[in-house]
């Protein structure tokens, strides 16, 4: 599945309880989130502990990268980095 824009962030160390909706909600504090997805294991249906968030602009993406790396979301300090590669 490819994401919606080129302004993509990788979000790691997610709590197993984080949903795509709660991930988007946390990242909306930094701008217009055009997509958010937590990755789930196809066999077990459980979270793999990471996801992706897309913004409508580079400035919003950079704000989130600086502001939310280390932010505590549902009990865990998340890691935020620029998404690498083409497959999401």
UniProtKB/TrEMBL annotation:
<dbReference type="InterPro" id="IPR050502">
    <property type="entry name" value="Euk_RNA-bind_prot"/>
</dbReference>
<feature type="domain" description="RRM">
    <location>
        <begin position="7"/>
        <end position="85"/>
    </location>
</feature>
<dbReference type="GO" id="GO:0003729">
    <property type="term" value="F:mRNA binding"/>
</dbReference>
<dbReference type="Pfam" id="PF00076">
    <property type="entry name" value="RRM_1"/>
</dbReference>
<dbReference type="InterPro" id="IPR000504">
    <property type="entry name" value="RRM_dom"/>
</dbReference>
<dbReference type="InterPro" id="IPR012677">
    <property type="entry name" value="Nucleotide-bd_a/b_plait_sf"/>
</dbReference>
<keyword id="KW-0694">RNA-binding</keyword>
<dbReference type="InterPro" id="IPR035979">
    <property type="entry name" value="RBD_domain_sf"/>
</dbReference>
<dbReference type="GO" id="GO:1901259">
    <property type="term" value="P:chloroplast rRNA processing"/>
</dbReference>
<protein>
    <recommendedName>
        <fullName>RRM domain-containing protein</fullName>
    </recommendedName>
</protein>
<dbReference type="GO" id="GO:0009535">
    <property type="term" value="C:chloroplast thylakoid membrane"/>
</dbReference>
């Amino acid at each position: 599945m490819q994401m919606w824009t080129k302004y993509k962030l990788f979000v790691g160390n997610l709590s197993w309880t984080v949903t795509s909706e709660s991930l988007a909600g946390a990242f909306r504090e930094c701008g217009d989130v055009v997509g958010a997805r937590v990755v789930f294991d196809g066999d077990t249906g459980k979270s793999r502990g990471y996801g992706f968030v897309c913004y409508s602009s580079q400035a919003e993406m950079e704000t989130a990268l600086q502001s939310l790396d280390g932010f505590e979301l549902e009990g865990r300090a998340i890691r935020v980095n620029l998404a690498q590669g083409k497959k999401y």
